[in-house]
Write a structure and sequence with these properties.
The complex is a heterotrimer of chains A (371), B (385) and C (530).
Chain A (H helix, E strand, L loop, with lengths): L1 H13 L11 E3 L2 E6 L5 E12 L5 E12 L2 H9 L5 E3 L5 E5 H6 L2 H9 L8 E5 L3 H6 L8 H14 L10 H7 L6 E8 L4 E11 L2 E7 L4 H7 L8 E5 L11 E18 L2 E16 L8 H29 L6 H8 L1 H6 L2 H4 L4 E12 L5
Parallel strand pairs in A: 1-5, 2-6, 6-7, 7-8, 13-14
Antiparallel strand pairs in A: 2-3, 3-4, 8-9, 9-10, 11-12, 12-13
Chain B lengths: L1 H18 L8 H12 L7 H9 L3 H25 L5 H43 L6 H16 L3 H11 L1 H12 L16 H13 L7 H4 L8 H29 L11 H7 L9 H31 L6 H18 L3 H42 L1
Helix pairs in contact in B: 2-7, 2-11, 2-13, 3-4, 3-9, 4-9, 4-11, 4-15, 5-6, 5-13, 5-14, 5-15, 6-13, 6-14, 7-13, 12-13, 13-14
Chain C lengths: L1 H8 L25 H11 L6 E6 L4 E6 L5 H13 L13 E3 L2 H10 L1 E6 L5 E5 L28 H11 L5 E8 L5 E8 L5 H13 L8 H8 L11 E3 L2 H9 L3 E5 L5 E4 L17 H30 L7 H11 L6 H21 L2 H21 L5 H16 L3 H39 L1 E2 L2 E2 L44 H15 L7 H7 L1
Antiparallel strand pairs in C: 1-2, 2-4, 3-5, 4-5, 6-7, 7-9, 8-10, 9-10, 11-12
Classes of the chains: A alpha/beta (371), B mainly alpha (385), C alpha+beta (530).
Protein name (chain A): Ger(X)C family spore germination protein
Subcellular location (chain A): Membrane
InterPro entries (chain A): GerAC_N, Spore_GerAC-like, Spore_GerAC-like_C, Spore_GerAC_C_sf
Chain lengths: 371, 385, 530
């Protein structure tokens, strides 16, 4: 009994010691941006929403945006902490934006802190800012949503329409470290004229830095399909003929229903050749020229579409090779299936040189509710 | 009134032994769960990384090798236990090595169990401090787990067995959580198979054997388990293969989720992996995982505490092990607090415990078996002569 | 013929009244032939209490004694004076319904039971007449254990009526009742009710032993008996089920358990009881088994909610706010941002307030009780949030916890659960999730260690017995509960034989009919009717 009493007393006395972090005393940081600073340092920009609850139960929200210069991200956090009331906590970070310049330099130096400390949120979206991250974060959006919600919504939308991979901090980690595997990150641009943020395609990475080469927003659908990824919808628009005077009649828009991709790696002596096969089953969602009941039309369309998409794919592959960004992880696959070949190769030098032939086969399987 | 009640009292006394939980045997199912819960514990989080350090992505092959080899040791233990079916391990010692020799032997074993207990407390404290409560002093964590251990052990083996069986439900939960992560698996990361070579794989297997140390409990409680000798051996094997399967699952999941390079940076892959998942109603599954893992650690710890307590009870001829348990746990808290979060001290300590673990669980049992065989032969000759 | 034979053989054994209390233990005081001595002795023994009425009859040669407050005047007239008036007997002492004794001590016990005693000068024999008055309330459904479907009667304060309710439900010669007189001063009647042949004899002996050890002046409620005989008093968990429902007691007896009933209280104790028996309600067996299972599961979840929810909330907002999903972060932050006190204090305040409201509500008359509920629940709850003392999330959490604790069909367990919230709140406030796990583990270990009359308290989960899980987490259809659960220690396991064989027969006959359905057109109709 005495023991129990002692335990209870000590519990009461000890309560709130050590590791307590009161949620109400924390400044939540939902969006964070890093830019290249002077002398190899960085600039950290954070947006901190402060919520005030009014007596009537409603609430108003103020957003504070703070930029600080420092040598490392955590030093920057310390500096920021000196400027805000209460303490600053990125445990619920939603979006991490990295400036173009910094990304070209190296991104792991920024991310290390996120991987190392257990309270950080590895689920946060990660994106590259065209220009600087602080520009993206300080952008005053006209709609009243938080910047974190705006950017994460934008990125999720891009994933749903097969424009971007849903990369978060954790998911790129494997590719960051692994030889013979690279990754791409979505780009966010500020559209000054229209006062909007915009998804600007995918930035190709090699090892831990941005190559400067992009897959544009229009190309990115095929880019995703080539990786075997598909969101909720994947709409491709292609020009299929020159017959009609009205330009719009010459185009068809299709939605990919099913895809099958297959990367075929053949070792050839000291090098490898790669064949990327992509089979798409699509539904026509827009085709003003109509008459899809005729098998001939469909067959013709299938052929032209296949050619068009293959052309796109070739362009993308060329870009990837130029950027030396092995998104498919071909190098890792060579290492896994043909280790003796891989040992002989210096992969990062070999990748731009190898033969990669994309072959796309499009097949129309549906045409909507009219012919 | 009084005389009547006294007479009834006497009858009640005669009934008591049948009700006494201490004397009852544990069922084979409970035996299974004791074995499983003792082995799956503090090591599971760091196992993938440790194996990877030796045999890289072929760690899982190492584990399989260890899993296949270990039944030989189990067989040795069983052969010893079978000979003295109703004696506990410590009593067998006395029988084989004489009164004082046996006691000294049992005392050594108890010390080994205590040191494993200390190691478990240390690893647990470190893990909690790394992942959940960085500022909480070490002794708090040590007291927490030791309290659970003492309270559970003092209930007796039967309570231990019941509790283990009940909390094994959590294993199911852990397995489900792990399967959830298979959607992010890159099977390619397991390839090329056999890259690290046979020597490395064998070395890894040695490393993997560490995580099976807990099987030793099977001989300590062997005499307290229901069923024929053969049935009990079958249960031992089943438990062993279940544990192997469980380890294999964790290994494969961590090796397919993390790239070969990445995993070298991540000491606790499973936790790290769960950290990046988010369920719609709850984020940060790792925190829940580690809370559940606490239970697994507590059960392993309790088994070692139980074994050490039983050893002391036998050595000092105590009536119950309760006092011994409290005494041992005080020692454990004290010595664990001496080491605390100090990484270098802990590494040295871990090294010693692992070495003595190999000696006590792998090298000595064959020796005991030989002694037992020789003794029997002498006995036979004496009988014939 | 038989009579003559018996007369000849001399096999004439005189039967005597059965006494359920061992006569040898009772003190004896022989009556004297002098009436005055007898009366004086009684007067002295009763300390001249004023409600002891002495009516002198027969010109001072006889007297009728009774305790005024215990007897029914009408019955005295009926049983004693009417036979005289109608000249059925010559003297009161000869009335056939009288019970005779020579022991004055026995007559004292009789008087205390509400008997009237008749003594004559010059005769030692004392005649006793049962003229007890009893005031019984009706066997209404107990307020605290209502059911929607099923029987609507309940035990009352009279032991005989209560046993009557049980006997009416179990018309079986094996139903055995053992009386005990407990309480050295109060002499309270206690009855042990069990089904011989089903109940484990060792269990009965165990309970008897424990009952015999009771040495107390007073036994006035089942709580007394409970604390005297339960296995572990240092446990917050009740180890015997309390109920006022005859159907529940009957079900327990039929499972092989023992019911302990006390005079003067409607509450019956059932031993042994397990943790899960507190989660079973009579209603479960009157529902469809799907819904029964569903309700069971909800109740058992409520156990976790009741003891763990506030602790979980505290751990989340003061230790691990990372676990709040993204969509909820801002709303939660909004709600707790400007609360003055730490969540631990918030929770304690709210939990205590709820307990206050509950406690105030119980004792007050019903109309005021409702007012308390409204004032306490609605007004205080709303005002406290508006004042910014407590966050509205905390109000939700604490209210949910209270509701969850009331879901348990047993009142004792419900109190226990609300009590257990506190240590967990403190643990969560000290160590976060680790503290909660620690607390839950300690509770679970405690439950595993507990035993109720030799039965593990957590049976059939620990020790695990899959077969008996059919009436814990789930409730399978009744015909499938064909074996008694192990945790009742029943010696006869079989409870229900194959009871749905007709289904097989019907099926086979139906398939027969399918062949010759033209011959028997009404075969199909039968099926639809049923």
């Amino acid at each position: 009994m005495k023991k129990g009493l002692m335990v209870i007393i000590s519990l009461v006395l000890l309560t709130g010691c050590w590791d307590e972090r009161q949620f109400k005393n924390v400044k939540l940081v939902l969006t964070m941006g890093f830019d290249k600073g002077e002398d190899g340092g960085i600039t950290e920009t954070v947006s901190i929403p402060t919520i005030k609850r009014s007596a009537e139960g409603g609430s108003e929200e103020k957003v504070q945006i703070i930029s600080t210069e420092a040598r490392t991200p955590l030093e920057a956090r310390n500096n920021t902490d000196l400027m805000v009331s209460e303490s600053f906590d990125p445990a619920k970070l939603r979006v991490l934006v990295i400036g173009e310049e910094l990304a070209k330099d190296n991104i792991y130096s920024v991310l290390d802190e996120f991987y190392r400390n257990p309270t950080n949120n590895l689920n946060a979206h990660i994106a590259i800012a065209r220009g600087s991250a602080s520009e993206v974060l300080t952008y005053q959006n006209t709609s009243d949503t938080r910047i974190s919600k705006y950017i994460s919504g934008l990125l999720q939308g891009a994933v749903a329409t097969t424009h971007a991979t849903g990369e978060n901090i954790q998911l790129i980690c494997a590719e960051l470290f692994e030889e013979g595997e690279d990754f791409s990150l979505p780009i966010i641009e500020v559209d000054e004229e229209k006062q909007l943020l915009r998804f600007g395609g995918m930035a190709l990475f090699h090892d831990d830095s941005y190559t400067g080469m992009d897959i544009t927003a229009n190309e990115s659908i095929v880019f995703m399909l080539l990786q075997g990824l598909k969101g909720k919808s994947a709409r491709l628009t292609h020009k299929v003929s020159d017959q009609h005077e009205n330009e719009r009649y010459n185009h068809v828009t299709t939605n990919v229903l099913k895809l099958k991709n297959d990367i075929d790696i053949k070792p050839e002596g000291d090098t490898v050749s790669v064949e990327v096969n992509l089979a798409l089953k699509v539904r026509v969602v827009e085709y003003p020229a109509d008459h899809l009941q005729e098998k001939k039309t469909i067959d013709e369309l299938n052929v032209t579409l296949s050619e068009e998409v293959t052309k796109d794919a070739e362009k993308i592959v060329a870009k990837m090779q130029e950027a030396n960004s092995d998104i498919w992880g071909i190098g890792r696959q060579v290492k896994a299936y043909h280790p003796e070949v891989y040992k002989k190769l210096k992969w990062s030098e070999t990748f731009p040189e190898i033969d990669i032939t994309p072959k796309v086969k499009v097949e129309i399987v549906q045409h909507g509710i009219i012919y | 009134m009084k005389p009547a009640s006294q007479s009834i009292n006497q009858t009640a006394e005669t009934i008591k032994p049948t009700n006494n939980t201490k004397e009852q045997k544990v069922s084979r199912r409970q035996f299974f769960y004791i074995l499983v819960q003792t082995q799956i514990g503090v090591g599971i989080l760091s196992l993938p990384n440790e194996l990877h350090a030796v045999s890289r992505q072929d760690g899982w092959i190492s584990l399989l090798v260890a899993g296949v080899v270990l039944p030989i040791v189990l067989l040795i233990l069983w052969l010893i236990a079978k000979r003295y079916e109703d004696l506990t391990f410590f009593q067998i010692n006395e029988k084989l090595f004489g009164k004082w020799g046996g006691r000294a032997f049992s005392l050594l074993y108890s010390c080994y169990f205590v040191s494993v207990g200390v190691l478990i407390v240390l690893l647990f404290g470190r893990m909690i401090s790394l992942w959940v409560l960085p500022n909480t002093p070490f002794w708090v964590m040590a007291v927490c787990i030791v309290t659970v251990g003492v309270y559970l052990t003092n209930g007796g083996l039967l309570v231990l067995a019941r509790f283990y069986t009940m909390v094994s439900l959590l294993l199911l939960l852990l397995i489900t959580l792990s399967f959830y992560s298979l959607q992010e698996a890159h099977w390619m990361y397991l390839l090329p198979i056999g890259e690290s070579g046979i020597t490395k794989i064998i070395l890894g297997a040695k490393e993997a054997l560490l995580s099976f140390f807990g099987f030793f409990v099977s001989i300590v409680i062997f005499s307290r388990v229901e069923g024929s000798v053969k049935e009990r051996f079958k249960t031992m094997l089943q438990a062993h293969f279940f544990v192997t399967f469980f380890y294999l699952l964790t290994l494969i999941i961590s090796y397919t989720f993390f790239s070969t390079k990445e995993i070298t940076f991540v000491p606790e892959p499973i936790l790290y992996m769960l950290k990046s998942f988010e369920l719609p109603f709850i984020a940060r599954i790792d925190l829940f995982f580690i809370s559940m893992w606490f239970v697994s650690v507590a059960t392993s710890f309790t088994t070692y505490l139980y074994m050490a307590g039983q050893g002391l009870k036998e050595v000092f001829r105590l009536k119950t092990a309760k006092r011994a348990n409290v005494f041992i746990s005080l020692i454990i808290v004290a010595s664990a607090s001496l080491i605390g979060y100090d990484m270098t001290k802990m590494e040295t300590f871990t090294k010693y415990v692992i070495q003595s673990g190999f000696i006590f669980t792998f090298y000595i049992p064959p020796f005991i078996l030989i002694v037992a065989l020789v003794r029997r032969r002498i006995q036979k000759e004496r009988d014939e002569g | 013929m038989g009579f003559i034979r018996r007369l000849l053989l001399g096999d004439h054994e005189k039967l005597q009244d059965r006494e359920f209390i061992n006569q040898n233990d009772e003190p004896e005081y022989p009556s004297s032939t002098k009436l005055a001595d007898n009366v004086n002795y009684l007067m002295h023994e009763f300390h001249n209490t004023n409600d002891l009425r002495i009516r002198i009859l027969n010109k001072g040669n006889a007297s009728l004694l009774y305790i005024e407050s215990l007897v029914d005047q009408g019955k005295i007239h009926e049983t004693i004076f009417r036979p005289l008036e109608f000249n059925e007997v010559d003297s009161i002492g000869e009335i056939p319904s009288a019970k005779h004794t020579l022991n004055l001590e026995e007559s004292i016990r009789g008087l205390l039971k509400g008997h009237a005693i008749y003594m004559e000068d010059g005769r030692k024999t004392i005649a006793q007449f049962a003229v007890t008055s009893s005031f019984n309330r009706s066997t209404e459904e107990p307020q605290n254990e209502k059911v929607v479907r099923g029987s609507h009667d309940g035990f009352i304060e009279n032991l005989m009526v209560n046993i009557n309710l049980i006997r009416r439900r179990i018309q079986n010669r094996d139903l055995t009742i053992k009386y005990y007189k407990l309480g050295k001063k109060t002499n309270t009647n206690v009855a042990l009710v069990f089904l011989d042949g089903v109940t484990d004899p060792e269990l009965i002996q165990e309970i008897e032993t424990r009952l015999n050890y009771i040495s107390s002046d007073m036994i006035h409620s089942p709580g007394y008996v409970e604390e005297f005989i339960e296995d572990n008093t240092k446990s917050p968990f009740p180890q015997m089920l309390n109920t006022e429902r005859p159907d529940r007691v009957v079900a327990a007896i039929m499972e092989g358990r023992v019911a302990i009933m006390t005079e003067g209280t409607p509450t019956t104790l059932i031993a042994p009881s397990t943790f899960f028996s507190f989660y079973q309600a009579s209603d479960d067996y009157n529902m469809r088994w799907f819904t029964g299972t569903f309700v069971r599961l909800i109740r058992l979840t409520s156990f976790v909610i009741a003891i763990g929810l506030p602790a979980f909330y505290i751990a989340v907002v003061s230790f691990h706010f990372e676990v709040i999903p993204d969509e909820l972060v801002i709303p939660v932050k909004q709600s707790i941002n400007e609360i003055a006190y730490p969540p631990l204090i918030e929770a304690l305040v709210m939990v205590v307030i709820i307990e206050l409201i509950r406690e105030a509500g119980i004792r007050l008359p019903q109309p005021i009780g409702q007012t308390i509920g409204i004032v306490g629940g609605l007004v205080i709850g709303d005002a406290v949030v508006r004042a910014g003392l407590v966050s509205n999330l905390m109000v939700i959490v604490v209210a949910l916890t209270a509701i969850a604790s009331f879901v348990v069909p047993s009142n004792e367990l419900s109190t226990t659960l609300r009590f257990l919230t506190f240590p967990l709140i403190f643990l969560a406030g000290t160590l976060g999730f680790i503290g909660i796990t620690f607390g839950f583990m300690m509770i679970l270990i405690h439950l595993t260690r507990l035993e109720s009359f030799g039965v593990p308290y957590l049976a059939p989960v620990a020790p695990l017995r899959f077969k008996d899980l059919k009436d814990t987490f789930i409730r399978v259809p009744i015909y499938m509960m064909n074996k008694r659960p192990r945790d009742s220690r029943a010696v006869q396991m079989e409870a229900i034989g194959p009871s749905r064989e007709w289904k097989q027969i019907e099926k086979s006959s139906q398939s027969d009919e399918a062949g010759k359905s033209i011959n028997q057109p009404d075969g199909g109709n039968n099926k639809t009717d049923k």
